[in-house]
Amino acid sequence: MTTSATPTRSLDVLPYLPQDNNASASQISHDVVEYISSDLGKLLRQSAAEFWGYVVNDASVFKCIDSYLHFRRRLFDEQVDAPPSSADDELARRVFMVLLRMSTAGEEGGPPPAEHGAVLYDNWLFDVPKLLDICILYGHTNRDLTSQLVSNVFKLQPGYLEDLNGCASTVVDNLNQMHKSTHQALTEPEPDPTALTEAASYFHDVVSTLLAFVQVYPVGTRALLAGEGAGLFAVLGVIHDDLFPAVQEVVKTYAPG
What we know:
Blueprint: H1 27-44, H2 48-57, H3 59-71, H4 86-103, H5 113-122, H6 128-138, H7 143-156, H8 159-186, H9 193-216, H10 221-224, H11 231-254
């Protein structure tokens, strides 16, 4: 397999941390966001060979993209600070463009098309959690390009479809465990409203993310619901019909004021 040349020096891209969502309200976070954005701009200006050298071999690039997808505030998260700044928007655009370039085969100087999927998979440049993060972060603002990106990844590496089904099975197990523990908490004489609110947020996160995925990549629904993944319908139905009304009632009862 063709390997990308190791760069002579790292770009030393900073990771994106939870507090960096506050770029509009914090000068330090604003500076971090601008540093990251500037470094990703440099990455995008590289030739294909240099770009792939950094993407595959520079750990700072990997950690930056991975941390951004993990920690970037979702649309449905509570907006406790100032709205996104122009620096936030520019960083979001550059992260997406790096991901889109990684998912696009045939660029002269990049991985040969026959090897592109293996390069993505073997170097963990994409995985199912990252693809789900991409859908929830970008699907609502640019569904067409996000669909193109995700479709490219699955076409280049069909192995991700098997991973998708394995991920669905894990989600079913997690939801069942959360349902059991939350149901048990509701039987306590004085249920903890904070814990129940966190449980409701988790359920909402899962549903919103899965919905974003099937909207961005509808053909992936079959793989998502194959085998043990079919249990998603059952557990989500139980949570919606049985758990949510009870959780909402408890939270209302113990809410301040």
